[in-house]
Automatic annotation (TrEMBL):
One example of a Gene Ontology biological process annotation: riboflavin biosynthetic process
Database matches in Gene3D superfamilies: Dihydrofolate Reductase, subunit A
GO molecular function annotation: 5-amino-6-(5-phosphoribosylamino)uracil reductase activity
Domain Bacterial bifunctional deaminase-reductase C-terminal: residue ranges: 4-171
Listed name of the protein: Deaminase
SUPFAM superfamilies on file: Dihydrofolate reductase-like (SSF53597)
Protein's organism: Dactylosporangium sucinum
Transmembrane segments: none
């Protein structure tokens, strides 16, 4: 049975907005992020994240890009407007999200990796589908209004691990707790 991992980069004040001038490239944290991708069996993406990432990765070359581009991608859309064929080795998710994700977790023994921490991530967490949240915190205050899970609701978590990288980036790995706790 696979696991669903939501991974997101953010500033120290939890800015996750589209202006990622705060992102600190290079260093050991970037290698750890690539390792996270290598360990994944597939990607599970919301429609907006898919639309933003597909053109970038399809235009990127190199060994790591080849690995990313070869992995299967499953794309969720509330509007149902996604139809096959999709680019970037992707397929739309059919049916209700909880059942579709549970089926994908059964099909893939490794991690399903979800990028971003917005509405789609909140929906996954609220259905109890997320096994871990990986929050990569960069040492900068950026003050953008976009925050993790877009303030849609409360999510209690248990810290499983924390790794501080030499450049000040910290990876916190959390397990979402059931909503009744």
């Amino acid at each position: 049975m696979g696991r669903l991992v939501v991974t997101a980069q953010m500033s120290a004040d939890a800015s996750i907005g589209p202006s990622i001038g705060w992102y600190q490239p290079g260093g050991a944290h970037e290698q750890a992020g690539e390792d996270e991708v290598r360990l994944a069996d597939a990607f599970l993406l919301g429609r907006r994240t898919y639309a933003a990432l597909a053109p970038i990765w399809l235009a990127t070359s190199g060994t790591f890009a080849d690995e990313v581009n070869a992995k299967p991608k499953y794309v969720a859309s509330r509007s149902g407007s996604l139809t096959e064929p999709l680019d970037w080795n992707a397929k739309p998710i059919a049916g209700a999200l909880p059942e579709a994700v549970r089926a994908l977790k059964s099909e893939h023994p490794g991690n399903l990796l979800t990028y971003g921490c917005g509405e789609f991530a909140y929906e996954l967490v609220s259905h109890g589908l997320v096994d871990e949240l990986h929050l990569w915190v960069h040492p900068v205050i950026w003050s953008e209004p976009s925050r993790p899970l877009h303030g849609l609701g409360h999510v209690r978590m248990r810290l499983k691990a924390s790794t501080a990288f030499p450049n000040g980036v910290v990876l916190n790995v959390y397990e979402p707790l059931p909503t009744d706790t």
